[in-house]
Design a protein that fits this description.
The complex is a heterodimer of chains A (113) and B (114). Chain A is mainly beta. Chain A has strands spanning 4-7, 10-13, 19-25, 31-37, 43-50, 53-57, 64-70, 73-78, 87-94, 103-104, 108-112. Chain A has no helices and 11 strands. Chain B has 114 residues and is an all-beta fold. In chain B, the strands form 2 sheets. In chain B, strands 2, 4, 5, 9, 10 and 11 form a 6-stranded mixed sheet that branches. A 5-stranded antiparallel sheet of chain B has the order 1-3-8-7-6, with no helix packed on it. In chain B, strand 4 (31-38) and strand 5 form a beta hairpin. The chains are: A mainly beta (113), B mainly beta (114).
């Protein structure tokens, strides 16, 4: 029943580790996004994929690599985690006819120690 | 480039009182404007949107917003606050033609007291 789901919900890891966050949407949307929300609640887009093709790639360290195996999934892999990567990461999706109507997942709270 | 400014990081109202959350935008071309709500430990949910047409737009949960081009504003209102309205509210903008890329404001936390 969940429209946009993310796993895991919480992720605690040490500096230098590599981790992945998974996102899946069952809405039939063709565009998916990753956003980062910092400790001050500021939301910033990181990446967007349309039908498995990267269409938005903001200024993000190349330690972050999105992967879209199909249009229902968009995963985020982070290498060599740093303290500053601690944040809540949101996945979102939008339909072809209304890219601005974005549906958000529940978020993944990443804590790097 | 587009941007939004939300005035007031924290707004407190009594239950039953008017809710007014302010948002001003900056855009060189006609914008699309949005309000999203984030309840604690949840993702964002679209409240309402303005794209074209009627400048007063109604959303879910009794909220509405009015696009005022002359004031570059898109303030969110609700006539009577309910305890369940307590949440973080985000204004967002995107430019026509780049409809994928939402730029969010810094958010306003709404507190509703008895």
């Amino acid at each position: 029943d969940t429209a946009v789901s993310q796993t895991p919900k919480y992720l605690v890891t040490q500096m230098g580790n590599d981790k992945s966050i998974k996102c899946e949407q069952n809405l039939g949307h063709d565009t998916m996004y990753w956003y980062k929300q910092d400790s001050k609640k500021f939301l910033k887009i990181m990446f967007s994929y349309n039908n498995k093709e990267l269409i938005i790639n903001e200024t993000v360290p190349n330690r972050f690599s999105p992967k879209s195996p199909d249009k229902a999934h968009l995963n985020l892999h982070i290498n060599s985690l740093e303290l500053g990567d601690s944040a809540v990461y949101f996945c979102a999706s939008s339909p072809a006819g209304s890219r601005y109507e974005q549906y958000f997942g529940p978020g993944t709270r990443l804590t790097v120690t | 480039a587009q941007s939004v400014t939300q005035l007031g990081s924290h707004v407190s109202v009594s239950e039953g009182a008017l809710v007014l959350l302010r948002c001003n935008y900056s855009s060189s071309v006609p914008p699309y404007l949005f309000w999203y709500v984030q309840y604690p430990n949840q993702g964002l949910q679209l409240l309402l949107k303005y794209t074209t047409g009627a400048t007063l737009v109604k959303g879910i949960n009794g909220f509405e917003a009015e696009f005022k081009k002359s004031e570059t504003s898109f303030h969110l209102t609700k006539p009577s606050a309910h305890m369940s309205d307590a949440a973080e509210y985000f204004c967002a903008v995107t430019l026509t033609g780049t409809a994928s890329k939402l730029t969010f404001g810094t958010g306003t936390r709404l507190q509703v007291t008895l």
